TrEMBL record:
<feature type="domain" description="ABC transporter substrate-binding protein PnrA-like">
    <location>
        <begin position="42"/>
        <end position="290"/>
    </location>
</feature>
<dbReference type="InterPro" id="IPR052910">
    <property type="entry name" value="ABC-Purine-Binding"/>
</dbReference>
<protein>
    <submittedName>
        <fullName>BMP family ABC transporter substrate-binding protein</fullName>
    </submittedName>
</protein>
<keyword id="KW-0732">Signal</keyword>
<dbReference type="InterPro" id="IPR003760">
    <property type="entry name" value="PnrA-like"/>
</dbReference>
<dbReference type="InterPro" id="IPR028082">
    <property type="entry name" value="Peripla_BP_I"/>
</dbReference>
<dbReference type="GO" id="GO:0005886">
    <property type="term" value="C:plasma membrane"/>
</dbReference>
<feature type="signal peptide">
    <location>
        <begin position="1"/>
        <end position="26"/>
    </location>
</feature>
<dbReference type="Pfam" id="PF02608">
    <property type="entry name" value="Bmp"/>
</dbReference>
Length: 381
């Protein structure tokens, strides 16, 4: 089965789960006509909010763009680093379009408004945005996509919950948006599955990449007795190196950074965007892009069969027994009853958020707005 075929099948599952009105597969949509998005695509652009070598989010995006370049040698692939989440994003995307780009990947959460604006002004260009959930109408030549990265974070939580000796895990995160909250909750739930006494202490930096704030957050968590650190930050090296220097363990995020933590590295939830990017490009090249009906709130994960993420290699602190437990849990997450948030789920105040036996959908998790029991921190911080 080709990547395109597997993702079209995954889309059918995702559409059913999200109950997107009018959702159709790419193969059902037919080819676009002259002047429609996807016609004669020769150039693809990627904008990144940070540097391509950040051991994190933007590095994963860049590596995905290079996978597209390898898969489509006749296409020109444009990349732009350090594009802020402001009007600069729209300007940069327009410059790419002026250079011939017919497909743009806007890859940061805060690039959404600029992406939709550029799509509206350029109806012959496909603009897709990474990470948001949209409920409003959007231009038909635009859409969003993402992966359920909280699933591998649940698995990484198993490694952390097994390895910790203090029963205190630390989580440095940027902003309390649903995808970040879901990651934190899944990490704690995974840890709880093997260690009921474990807690995850959170610190917000209010920034995707501020090494000074990251260093301060890591130090404050280490001072509280945390012996495993993880994070939801775009650039990850500061927190990982702080953990390694202190003798603590670390769980990576976005990209494999095991080389900078040879002693304390456990594993990490790593984006592997190549297959998803390649499939989206192929859909556009084939003239099968059908706008929001294809990409609006498109999510792939363990249940859909097309995964844009992998677990990073395991470090020396992860036993074979733990690896087996993680592999078993991963298989379970791909089943109908599997979920990091399979009920019962209680929030910090003891309120039941998912009843016993309940399994929330991917769409439910995309709007998560509470911390689960075991997570220490205030969403208003």
């Amino acid at each position: 089965m080709s990547v395109h075929q597997s993702t079209v099948r995954a889309l059918a599952v995702a559409c059913a789960a999200l109950v997107v009105a009018g959702c159709t597969s790419a193969t059902e949509a037919g080819s676009s006509g002259d002047g429609e998005p996807g016609k004669d695509t020769t150039t693809v652009g990627f904008i990144m909010v940070g540097p391509k070598d950040d051991f994190g989010y933007n590095q994963a995006v860049y590596e995905g763009s290079q996978a597209v370049e390898a898969a489509f040698p006749d296409l020109e692939v444009l990349t732009a680093e350090n594009v802020p989440e402001d009007d600069t994003a729209a300007t940069t995307m327009q410059q790419m379009i002026d250079e011939g780009a017919e497909l743009i990947f806007a890859t940061s959460y805060g690039h959404l408004d600029a992406a939709l604006s550029v799509a509206e002004e350029n109806p012959d260009v496909v603009v897709v945005q990474q990470g948001n959930t949209i409920t409003d109408d959007i231009p038909e030549n635009s859409g969003t996509y993402f992966g359920t990265v909280y699933e591998p974070m649940y698995l990484a939580g198993i490694a952390a919950g097994t390895a910790t000796e203090s029963d205190k895990l630390g989580y440095v995160y940027a902003f309390p948006i649903p995808q970040t909250i879901a990651n934190i909750n899944a990490f704690e739930r995974g840890a709880q599955s093997v260690n009921p006494d474990v807690e995850t202490i959170t610190v917000s930096t209010s920034s995707w990449c501020d090494p000074g704030k990251q260093q301060a957050a890591a130090e404050s968590l280490l001072d509280e007795g945390v012996d495993v650190l993880t994070q939801h930050q775009d650039c990850t090296s500061t927190v990982i190196q702080a953990a390694e220097k202190s003798g603590a363990m670390t769980v990576g995020y976005h990209a494999d950074a095991s080389e900078i933590a040879p002693e304390g590295w456990l594993t990490g939830a790593v984006w592997d965007w190549g297959p998803v990017y390649t499939d989206i490009v192929q859909t556009v090249v084939d003239g099968d892009f059908v706008g929001s009906a294809y990409n609006d709130n498109f999510r792939v994960g363990y249940k859909t069969g097309t995964n844009p993420f992998v677990l990073a290699p395991y470090g020396p602190g992860v036993s074979e027994e733990t690896i087996t437990a993680i592999e078993t849990a991963q298989e379970w997450l791909g089943t109908e009853e599997g979920s990091p948030f399979a009920g019962p789920v209680l929030d910090q105040d003891g309120e039941v958020r998912v009843e016993e036996g309940g399994v929330p959908t991917y769409a439910d998790n995309d709007v998560m707005d509470y911390f689960v029991q075991g997570v220490i921190g205030n969403l208003a911080q």
